[in-house]
Amino acid sequence: MAEEEPIEIGFPTVAAYHGQSALAMAAIVFQAQRAAFAFLSPDAIPARRDISIVSGHPGPGVRDAFEVVTRAVTRGAYMVDRSLPEARFVSGHDISYSFRITLGERTAEMALLPGVLPERFFELVFAKDRTTVQERELSALKRSVAEDVLAKEPRALFTIRAS
How many angstroms separate the Cα of 5 from the Cα of each of 8, 109, 138, 159? Predict the structure, then answer.
């Protein structure tokens, strides 16, 4: 729910707002929001003004997907907390693939399930000095992951716990 009436935001809007650099994560966060809002507000359209976000992932695809749907960044209701303990798939990197989405007094604590992102994704994303061939491979992989994630039911991608 926007300020006065409902608006519909599909993934093409998220992708257009973000661009293409982190398309896989934008798709994951789009699906996270779909799952969270169905979980937190099954009978009503959630109002943007009532939503706040804590993300364990600092990336631009994550931030932009949350922003375009909820305006949480603009409203000062978005925070990155790299210490979230769930979904820590990359040893040696302070990053969590988990989110806490709060709507009013209820929070959905969400963690990406292992295997949603293939090992090759992590190898390429966290590689130092990627070659041109690796850059192209990573770009294609991000698009492929986004397509796979968007083809699944949102709740099939995460563990969700209420708090």
Answer: 10, 27, 39, 31
Nearest by Cα to 159 from 35, 53, 27, 67: 35
- For residue 45, what are its two tokens? 């359209």
Q: Which two tokens stand for residue 150?
A: 């968007």
List, for residues 89-140, the tens digit of each pLDDT value: 998 899 999 999 999 999 999 999 999 999 999 999 999 999 999 999 999 9
- The count of residues in the chain is 163
Q: Token digits for 129?
A: 């000095």
Q: For the whole prediction, is pTM greater than 0.85?
A: yes
DSSP conformational letter for 90 = S
User: Strand order in 78-80's β-sheet?
Assistant: 78-80, 51-55, 98-103, 106-112, 158-162
* Residue 152: alpha-carbon gap to chain centroid: 14
